Structures are given as structure tokens and as C-alpha cells.
Amino acid sequence: MQYFTLLTAGLSLFFASGASAAAFGSAASLSACNNEVVASETFIGKDHNVKLTASHCGAAPHVSSHGTLLNKRQSNSTSVNVCGAQCNTFCFNPSGGGPNEDDCAVIADAILYDEQNVGALFNITAAGTATDKITMQYGSCLTYFLNQDSEQLTYCRSDWSSLVTWLSGDCNAANNAHGGLCVAADQTWYIQVQHS
Ligand SMILES: *[C@@H]1O[C@H](CO)[C@@H](O)[C@H](O)[C@H]1NC(C)=O
Ligand SMILES: *[C@@H]1O[C@H](CO)[C@@H](O)[C@H](O)[C@H]1NC(C)=O
What is the pTM (predicted TM-score) of this model? Predict the structure, then answer.
């Protein structure tokens, strides 16, 4: 899947030249989830060692497709399938304190394991509901999917797995970063990879 390389024009050049993704814009260097309320917690993967949490942030760090903080969106309909949607990558600079890529690989594998054994798709409830944030954590690596839209989204596990691999590598210390995020071009969601 090449969806996450389809960045905006400037970012595409960065990628094509083999350089790292863009540095994070004017939003907080690493989005913080304040007053998080956990709705459920379980363990996934072949070895049941990747922690999966569904939660809601009292103050959610919403991000625009330009990497700036986003005001809350209003929306209309029901569940929207966003598999394969383009997203723009932003890395958190500088290097130091990022997740161990091997730990992120365990999460990417666990998501693929679930894809094969649970299903290709999963739903994330609308922004503002109790389970609008889905987090996976193993060792030093943490990734989460945040629904920024006021409607339910459906996403592909294989896409999330690919993004964990992509972000943990392209936003690693060698690229002067300590994690990053990919925000949907239409700003309805983003996936972040960071130190747990
Ligand atoms: C719902 O919102 C989406 C954009 O978020 C828009 O494309 C669509 O046309 C809207 N549907 C209705 C019924 O208003
Ligand atoms: C997602 O939610 C819709 C209803 O809004 C449902 O039809 C569908 O089965 C759900 N998909 C999964 C993977 O849970």
C-alpha cells in the first residue's frame, strides 16, 4: 500500500528523495491526551502481549492535515470507511526518547495477526464518545488511532499495521525524530507512534 506516501506536494519530494518526512508543524511537539478515561482494556496478538485500550481524552489533541492543531469538526452521517485514505506524515523532532522499532514491530505484527483472526476492519466511535481513541502498546512503543470526526469511522487493520512500521522507521532517531503521526488528508483521524 502506498497511501501514506501520497503526501502533499512538498512532502512527496521529501519522501522521493529518501529524506525523512516533514517535521511536525506548529502543533504541540508530542500531542498529549489529558484526563484520559479508559473504557476497556485487553491484550491482542499471537502472544496476547500487546495492550489494546479504548478510551477518551478529556482534552483531545486534534491535528489538522497541515500539522497544526484543529478545531473540533461538525459532521453528519454514520460510519465512514477510511481504509486506504491518504494521510500526511509529520515527525516529532529532535531524536532521542523515541520508541524502540523492535517493540513497534511487535505491535505491527499483532495488528496483522488480528487482521487474520478477528477481521480486516474495525470501527472507532465518533469524536467525543467514550471510545474515540484506540491505543496499542508494547514495551517502549505506543500507537493510537484518534477519531477527530463526529461520526463513526471504519478502518483496516492492515493499514494501521503498515503505518506503525512506516512511522516508527521514518520518524526514528536516524531521521532526527522520536516518533510521529499521519493525519488524514480530510482531517477526520490520525495515527500516532510514540514512546509509551
Ligand atoms: C457528510 O459530510 C461529508 C463530509 O464530512 C460530506 O462529504 C457529505 O456530503 C455529507 N453528507 C450529508 C448527507 O450531508
Ligand atoms: C461497524 O459498525 C457498523 C454499524 O455502524 C456495522 O454494520 C459493522 O458491522 C461494524 N464493523 C465492525 C468491523 O465492527
Answer: 0.79
